[in-house]
Amino acid sequence: MAKMSDILKQDLYELLSITYEATEQEIRSSYRRLARECHPDKCPDNPEAAKKLWDQLQEALKVLTDETAKSAYDRLLKARKANALRHKQLDQKRQKLKDKLDAREKSAKEDVLSEAEAVDQLKREIERLRKEGSKQVETENEILKQQIEEELKQKIESDLKKSQLLPKLKIIRKSKEFELSSDNLSDYLSKFGEINGLVLTKNKKKALIEFNDYKQTLNVFDNRHQFEHLFTIEWIGDKPDINEKTAETVDISNTNHLNDINMKPNEDFSNDYESIVLRNMRAAEERKRLIKQMQEQDSQQD
């Protein structure tokens, strides 16, 4: 919670980057934008400063969205401006104008509270808001919480999509005249889609290749006859059951190379980020295992 002295010293309109004529909707909109930027969960590098600004923004929202408190605060600003103007005029016109200015201020006291009175009234209103609890802040924080959760959910879903284990193809050199290399395979196969990973065995007789999505992998396999004079293309494990219409639902429960991985293609990990990390680790280990298996097979054949 921000200190009372800090609230009294600050220009709350300037803190929220709004004008003095801002509507309640504009106040709320600016609060949401600034609060999202300085939310402690999104500022891990400087959490103390973020927390301090977060508290100040909440106090500003409380004051400026409560009609009575806002009125008291506006009186305080008006009194301060009047006091600053009085000092400026005193400096400019020197002491000879002091009596005249004092007379003007005396006649204006009926409409403008003194700064001291405005401070006292604003303190009372802020204390009232703190005791009652601010429904405005609770509502805005709930909206902000939902927005942050949605942003985190989208990030997790994006990471999940990237972490899904894709089916792989094995390339076996058929023609001795053909050099099995990353460049040559890319030249022949990149037209079917983006190659996600490509690994060659040491003797360059076999390769393991993975594309960016299921449809691309299936397209390469279906067109393998184009390259049968140079190399053959086989599935690593059983051929996945791929839905041609969406290419989003893949039945990999029966593939031999995934039997030791406890996962489901459509499992919802949106609320469990640790599951995504584990899934990535499992996918990486599976790739290593397949590469090692291919290398061992080649060694036995040699």
From TrEMBL:
Highest taxon, organism lineage: Eukaryota
Span of domain J: 11-77
InterPro entries: DnaJ_domain, J_dom_sf, Nucleotide-bd_a/b_plait_sf, Pre-mRNA-splicing_ERAD, RBD_domain_sf
Molecular function via GO: nucleic acid binding
Gene Ontology CC, one term: spliceosomal complex
Keywords from the UniProt entry: Chaperone, Coiled coil, Cytoplasm, Nucleus
Localization: Cytoplasm; Nucleus
Single GO BP term: spliceosomal complex disassembly
Database matches in SUPFAM superfamilies: Chaperone J-domain, RNA-binding domain, RBD
Annotated coiled-coil segments of the chain: 87-154
CDD domains named among the record's database cross-references: DnaJ
PANTHER family to which the protein is assigned, alphabetical: DNAJ HOMOLOG SUBFAMILY C MEMBER 17
Record protein name field: J domain-containing protein
Species in which this protein is naturally found: Medioppia subpectinata
